[in-house]
Amino acid sequence: MSDFLPIEFENRMKELLGDEFEEFLAAYDGVRYRGLRINRLKVNADGNNATPDELCLSAGYEQIDWEPMGYYYNDEDQPGKHPLHEAGVYYIQEPSAMAPVPMLGVVPGDRVLDLCAAPGGKSTQLASALNGSGLLVTNEINPSRARILSENIERMGVKNAVVTNEAPAKLVPRFEGFFNKILVDAPCSGEGMFRKNDAALTEWSVANVKNCAERQAEILDCAADMLMGGGTIVYSTCTFAPEEDEQSVENFIARHPEFTIEKTLRLWPHKVKGEGHFAAVLRKEIREGEEEVVSIPEMSMSKSDMKKIREYLSDIIAEKCFEVGGKLSSGRLESYGDSIYLVPAGMTSISGLKVLRPGLCIGTLTKGRFEPAHSLALALSPSEVLRSVSLTVDEAAEYIKGLTRNADGEKGWTLVCVNSYSLAWGKTAGGILKNHYPKGLRKG
User: Fold this and answer.
1) 238 has catalytic annotation
2) Within a 10 A sphere around the Cβ of 234, how many other Cβ atoms?
3) Which band of pLDDT confidence, cut at 50, 70 and 90, is reported for residue 196?
């Protein structure tokens, strides 16, 4: 593959790397590393996350250095075809792409923005760090990519995320000084993905590098306006171009002297088990009279909304979900058509914004009849419902195809699990578990 690299790119990398250039070039014909990240939000009946041995990885459960829940896998593993993937137990993500999120230092209670979020790898990583507390606004300007982002937020069982489809500049008036953590995984020339993505190679040009740098500057300026004093931006790219990396950060600091560079990181494919990546941590100073906000406390749900959600879910959900600190104890209920959403606590009005997912969809209400949503099933664990059934991997694969099953037990909505991790809803009646796996997601 190294024979097909653009000559302008090669010349620049020779100058940038010096004696390391030949080693860098050889990496293009070397091993391509693949990774997945276990989802902290997904727990089994005992309240535990999945362990690597449950995933049957032939790579020997080798951990990715910069992400405690990240592991390498080999081509023969095919984790994308496993029912645990459909259940959101893990996310398939390029190893180096997992590095920027830990640098942001997200903790439960933060208000976080992922400004350029599709397809959702870093957003779901941020959601894992929030662990259901705080707010995540995850945005993507491209409509088709935003839909993929929304689907991945649902699959990973994220309850406190709002998915928007806007230009960054459109978000600024609504969220000025609102977030204390922002990730800008900026659109870039993709040089770090040449080994993995043919399109990045064929679309590369010197002019495109310049265009990307200009667009990155506009996006970073928007992020600066939406960050509160004392907050942090992590800016990342998957390119090697200094114009898009160090120079982009230095130009940003020149335009915004209230920021300082706390750290930068480069991951080189000839030095790490992953593709090329760059990241920088940018800290905004606290203005005089302004207090640093470390975390945002969640407000309890209003009494009227709590009454409604209990009415909808009383014969489905365990009481502990409604108690203080429970999964369904904070936020506000809002209806969009027939769908009822739990909007995260602390979220401002979404009126006037293009919103694909205003929060966690808990279900639909048609002619007084309530039906729980697939997204609610994925966000729950067996201990949080009144009825559940756990299938084996083979049984779950059949369920995903839409097959019904014989079932004993109490009549009503039942959480169907694979290896004790929630997968979908079923409805038990007359010794049959009727399949409610969404038809649009069925496979086979």
Assistant:
1) yes
2) 26
3) confident
